[in-house]
Specification:
heterodimer, A: alpha/beta, Alpha-Beta Plaits, 6-stranded mixed beta sheet, 38% helix, B: mainly alpha, MetI-like fold, elongated
């Protein structure tokens, strides 16, 4: 279990101090994939570095699996770090070492014997799908392959926690998905806790169990990923959720539809879990004398279940329209009416 | 044939002088490499934000490096005469040239080491720290291998400068091709001796440059 209590981190002298992390309390259960999302400058990079002691908090304490990272140092901290490994946005491989030598590096640090290092490296190369490339140098690999080396290297000392610092932000969408699948399967097979930071809601949606939203050094919202998608509370969370549920062109379509049908009401519906499988819309059309056009529909798969959104235009008698919206509420479908 | 064009060249003397030059260059390059590395690493690690961040040590090392780098070599030799006499027992011959050669070149190379180390991606250092690496591991397994091409091309440049320094040291009687060119060639008006000595110095320089470039090419996997 990872626990942060009242953690503050300030940089610089007191007069010009910048508060990177501001009063953060977090608890991360073992075996979970925990996402921390925020825009750049929100303090998430500093926060994740507090977990392996690359940064020490100004106030508060950080505990990872019973070890008080914020109050140990020297040899004890170095040994703790062998069980809390990290992967990076820009991979940070040693260019002077081959794939295999990069993977054995943390084992050399831990003082593992040569034969055992070789054996472990071969296993990991197999695990991350790089068989045949063990003697290549990083410069000969693609971005996705480099991150696989980074992951293999991070797993070398059988860590309890894997920290991912924007691990997919430098990769193209397809490679991102492949790396995310690899992280999911590692989480399931090895049971290690993964903490990742990102600015992409797609990453959170695809692999995280739980999420924390950061803004200006503070954690403003936390919770189960599906729940957060269903009912984001903070404005920033809504913006992140709309990253995956409202593509840009839908917004354009909506403004066009508004021009074409000034009478219409635009409603955004959110379906969660089992709701996505029930014919709510069909019964709405049958029971109310209104016209319904679907502007945009979308279903996202999260670790906790499906989450769908749909944007409708309702035209017709205002009273019937109001009743129809009421009906949707009764059916447990969340709806949000867009102002004209 | 050779006798007609180069009447004054004594080839035994020429060979001995070449060996002396090579000897002075080789020994002083080795010492310069080790001392320069130590200086460069110290400057790098004591800079703000690094593992041994220490303003005082950084400032002191930086000042020493800058002072010795700025003194013209010919003056440095003269300034170091008492030190050389104390250390070597004489101020003549190849050995007597070495303290000045090393003290002149090591700070120069130290700066090059600092530049080479500064070019290493900060992320790689962070990654090594995140794995729980000790400072010695970071120095020997990250800093040095990751900057090796720049370290080698730096020592090549320095070794070539040292060949030039040995020639200068020749004026005060250090031996080698410089002494030969100056005392036997220039001062006795034997142009052929000066010419052959110069050509041999050039050959040494070209071989050094070629060897350095070749090593860098082989080492650089980026």
């Amino acid at each position: 279990m990872i626990q942060l209590s009242n953690v503050n981190k300030r940089f610089g002298t007191s007069s010009t101090a910048i508060t990177a992390v501001d009063g953060v309390n977090l608890t991360i259960q073992e075996g979970k994939i925990y996402g921390i999302i925020g825009y750049s400058g929100a303090g998430k990079s500093t926060l994740i570095r507090l977990l392996n002691g690359l940064e020490q908090p100004t106030e508060g304490f950080v505990e990872v699996n019973g070890r008080k990272i914020s109050s140990i140092g020297g040899r004890e901290l170095r040994q703790a770090r062998q069980k809390i490994s990290m992967i990076f946005q820009h991979f940070n491989l040693l260019w002077s070492r081959t794939v295999k030598e990069n993977i054995t590096f943390p084992l050399e640090i831990a003082g593992v014997k040569k034969a055992d290092r070789e054996r472990k490296a071969s296993e990991l190369i197999e695990l991350v799908g790089l068989a045949g490339r063990e003697n290549a140098y990083p410069s000969q690999l693609s971005g996705g392959q480099k991150q696989r080396v980074g992951i293999a290297r991070a797993l070398a000392n059988d860590p309890e926690v894997l920290l991912c610092d924007e691990a997919t932000s430098a990769l193209d969408p397809e490679t991102t998905d492949a790396i995310l699948d690899l992280l999911t399967s590692i989480n399931e097979r090895l049971g290690l806790t993964i903490v990742l930071i990102t600015h992409e809601m797609h990453v959170i949606r695809k692999i995280c169990h739980e999420v924390a939203v950061m803004e200006a050094g503070r954690v403003v919202e936390t919770g189960d990923v599906l729940q957060l998608f269903q009912s984001p509370k903070e404005p920033i969370t809504k913006r992140f959720v709309s990253q995956v549920t409202e593509p840009e062109d839908a917004k354009k379509v909506m403004s066009l539809m508004r021009q074409d049908y000034p009478d219409g009401i635009l409603v955004k519906l959110a379906f969660v879990g089992e709701r996505t499988e029930q014919p709510v819309l069909a019964s709405l059309i049958r029971e109310y004398p209104i016209d319904v056009s679907i502007l945009q529909g979308n279903i996202s798969q999260t670790r906790g279940g499906a989450y769908g959104t749909m944007i409708l235009q309702l035209t017709g008698d205002p009273e019937a329209t109001a009743k129809a919206i009421q009906y949707l509420h009764e059916q447990g479908v969340q709806s949000e009416v867009y102002e004209k | 044939m050779i006798e007609t064009y180069l009447p004054n060249v004594d080839w035994t003397k020429m060979w001995d002088a070449t060996v002396e030059t090579l000897y002075m260059t080789a020994v002083s390059t080795i010492f310069t490499f080790v001392i320069g590395l130590a200086l460069g690493i110290l400057l790098f690690l004591t800079a703000p934000g690094h593992i041994w961040a220490n303003k005082l040590v950084n400032l002191l090392t930086g000042s020493i490096v800058n002072i010795f780098r700025s003194i013209p070599f010919i003056i440095l030799i003269i300034l170091l005469i008492p030190f050389t006499k104390f250390l070597i027992g004489t101020i003549r011959g190849p050995e007597a040239a070495m303290p000045a050669l090393i003290i002149g070149a090591a700070p120069f190379y130290g700066r090059m080491v600092l530049i080479a180390l500064s070019e290493i991606d900060k992320g790689v250092l962070e990654a090594a720290r995140s794995m729980g690496a000790k400072t010695s591991t970071i120095i020997f397994k990250v800093l040095l291998p990751e900057s090796m091409p720049a370290l080698i091309s730096g020592i090549t440049v320095t070794a070539i400068a040292l060949v030039g320094y040995t020639a200068m040291a020749g004026i005060i009687g250090a031996g080698g091709l410089g002494t030969l060119a100056f005392l036997d060639g220039f001062q006795r008006n034997r142009e052929d001796v000066t010419l052959v000595s110069t050509v041999l110095i050039l050959v040494v320089v070209f071989i050094l440059q070629f060897a350095g470039d070749f090593a860098v090419k082989r080492l650089d996997k980026r």
